[in-house]
């Protein structure tokens, strides 16, 4: 039996050196921690920026919708004043002039009311009959439309360097009534609703004319984000308002959001790091704990005697691994065996068990042909190490007259068809007996019984428990017994606890009885003493108090 150190055993599960795998595992653990730590912080920063921009856009949209609505209302007022004169547009100026002046003075927003014809201002509320070129009024741009029109101009002939909004409506005989709206109203609107303290620039376009900017000095908007661009069609023209944001103000909002939410993000990040660390530790520690426990020799083996019905004596044991953790106590075998399987340390653990068995058996003095059953897990059964491990075990226990029985469960057989069968056939050819453990609990079809070589069926304790004191038939149990007989297999009944169980099973030709009614699992030295005292003659139930584990 070769010495199997846990470290070496660990290496056997992979071609990559353990140090490299450990370094990779450490690096991936650190990376995972960095990612979970950074994720909430990055999300907070990104969402904060997105939210700051969203707030700025919402403000700009509200402001521009309000401003454009107000401009529409101003234009409608101007058009209302103009329409009063559309049917009188062809009248001589001296009949119109006073009314135009009165109207211009009384209607809000209106600076002048003018009648335009043939490129000339025929009559004006400000200038009376003095003819002025229309081009002078509208700054050289005459809209080429027949109906209503709107236009922003930088100057008018009457007021230089002062933009105006011109509102034109068609009048009689090819004339236009043109209202000049003082742009101060629009500027006040822009100042009030989209102040420069909040936005970098507000630009108003009406039709094809000049652009009205809130900041009259040309402001560079190249680095400023366009927050709102609201358009409204009116009187054949487009009223368009663009608002550009102040990057420093958006940054300020962003900073405020970060101050408010960053502590939460930091807390979340710390929580996630803690959770991941815990997860990593629990995953890592299960594997590490098992490997460390092997090195610290915390495992030992207990042996549960099997009563051979025909011989009337103990002619075998099942080896059961035990883990007693210092300061914690005994760990349930099904728990740590499952953990070892999940963490892929079951092969090294079983190799460790074999080493312990070899050490124990060296002190035994049992009858020749004595059976020693050892449980093997699926991973081991389908691996390359199985045959050599079992061969080494057989060789080591042979001088003590001990024969090895290999216990495998149904699920093992179902999962590992080819390699497992190959391994089992090889070992069986060398005299190792194969027992199917926990028979009947694997939820599988019985077809594997034909495929796999085996010698012994172990009836699960669950079926033994169906035996009733009144002596009624346990139908499924009887079927299993019949099946084993017809397959030529020997039978072990597990978990036999009462005289009723025992009588029932013996009457049906079960080969071995394993259970507390005969003996509990016990450490090697206790088993040696028990065997010397009772093994050759004690029948189940005769002693009244079966030997218990840990009570040599
Ligand atoms: P198992 O292979 O079916 O082992 C038999 C279990 O039945 C043992 O539990 C034994 O103590 C228990 N037992 C025996 N007679 C009685 C009885 O009369 N009444 C009751 N209630 N129980 C009885 P244990 O030692 O706790 O092991 C539980 C399981 O852990 C084992 O079931 C086996 O699947 C696994 N296991 C234990 N040792 C090893 C090992 O060395 N290798 C592997 N792969 N699995 C092992
Ligand atoms: Ca077993
Ligand atoms: Ca079993």
From TrEMBL:
UniProt-listed Gene3D superfamilies: EAL domain (3.20.20.450)
Compartments reported by the entry: Cell membrane
The keyword Transmembrane appears for this protein: yes
Source species, domain of life: Bacteria
Catalytically driven reaction(s): 3',3'-c-di-GMP + H2O = 5'-phosphoguanylyl(3'->5')guanosine + H(+)
Membrane topology: Multi-pass membrane protein
Enzyme class at the top of the EC tree: hydrolase
Transmembrane segments: 30-48
A Pfam family of this chain: CSS-motif
EC number: 3.1.4.52
Keywords from the UniProt entry: c-di-GMP, Cell membrane, Hydrolase, Membrane, Transmembrane, Transmembrane helix
Residue ranges annotated for the EAL domain, each copy included: 283-535
Protein name in UniProt: cyclic-guanylate-specific phosphodiesterase
């Amino acid at each position: 039996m070769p010495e199997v150190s846990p470290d070496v055993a660990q290496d056997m599960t992979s071609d990559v050196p353990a140090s490299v795998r450990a370094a990779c595992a450490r690096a991936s653990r650190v990376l995972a921690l960095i990612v979970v730590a950074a994720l909430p912080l990055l999300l907070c920063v990104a969402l904060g920026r997105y939210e700051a921009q969203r707030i700025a856009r919402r403000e700009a949209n509200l402001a521009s919708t309000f401003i454009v609505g107000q401009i529409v209302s101003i234009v409608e007022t101007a058009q209302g004043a103009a329409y009063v004169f559309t049917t009188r547009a062809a009248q001589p100026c001296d009949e119109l002039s006073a009314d135009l002046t009165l109207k211009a003075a009384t209607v809000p927003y209106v600076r002048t009311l003018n009648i335009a014809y043939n490129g000339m201002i025929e009559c004006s509320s400000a200038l009376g009959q003095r003819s002025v070129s229309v081009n002078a009024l509208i700054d050289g741009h005459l809209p080429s439309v027949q109906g209503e029109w709107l236009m922003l101009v930088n100057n008018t002939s009457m007021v230089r360097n002062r933009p105006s909004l011109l509102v034109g409506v068609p009048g009689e005989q090819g004339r236009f009534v043109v209202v000049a709206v003082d742009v101060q109203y629009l500027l006040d609107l822009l100042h009030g609703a989209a102040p420069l303290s909040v936005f970098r620039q507000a630009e108003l376009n009406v039709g094809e004319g000049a652009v009205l900017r809130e900041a009259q000095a040309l402001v560079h908007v190249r680095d400023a984000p366009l927050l709102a661009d609201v358009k409204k069609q009116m009187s054949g023209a487009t009223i368009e308002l663009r608002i550009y944001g102040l990057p420093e103000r958006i940054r300020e909002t962003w900073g405020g959001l970060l101050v408010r939410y960053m502590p939460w993000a930091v807390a979340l990040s710390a929580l996630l790091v803690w959770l991941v660390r815990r997860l990593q530790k629990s995953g890592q520690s299960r594997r590490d704990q098992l490997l460390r426990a092997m090195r610290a020799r915390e495992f030992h083996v207990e042996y549960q005697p099997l009563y051979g019905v025909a011989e009337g004596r103990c002619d075998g044991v099942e080896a059961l691994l035990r883990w007693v953790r210092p300061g914690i106590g005994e760990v349930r075998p099904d728990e740590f065996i499952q953990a070892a399987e999940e963490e892929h340390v079951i092969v090294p653990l079983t190799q460790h068990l074999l080493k312990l068995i070899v050490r124990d058996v060296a002190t035994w003095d049992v009858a020749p042909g004595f059976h020693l059953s050892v449980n093997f897990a699926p991973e081991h059964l389908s691996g390359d190490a199985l045959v050599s491990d079992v061969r080494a075990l057989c060789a080591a226990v042979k001088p003590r007259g001990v024969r090895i029985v290999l216990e495998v469960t149904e699920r093992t057989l179902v999962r590992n068809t080819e390699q497992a069968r190959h391994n089992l056939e090889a070992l069986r050819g060398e005299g190792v007996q194969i027992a199917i453990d926990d028979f009947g609990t694997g939820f599988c079809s019985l077809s594997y019984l034909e495929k796999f070589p085996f010698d012994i069926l172990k009836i699960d304790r669950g079926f033994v428990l169906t035996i009733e004191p009144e002596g009624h038939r346990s139908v499924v149990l009887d079927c299993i017994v019949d099946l084993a007989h017809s397959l030529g297999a020997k039978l072990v009944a597990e978990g036999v606890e009462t005289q009723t169980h025992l009588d029932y099973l013996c009457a049906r030709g079960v080969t071995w009885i394993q259970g507390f009614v005969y003996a509990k699992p016990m450490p090697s030295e206790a088993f040696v003493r028990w065997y010397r005292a009772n093994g050759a003659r004690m029948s189940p139930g005769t002693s009244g108090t079966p030997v218990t584990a840990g009570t040599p």
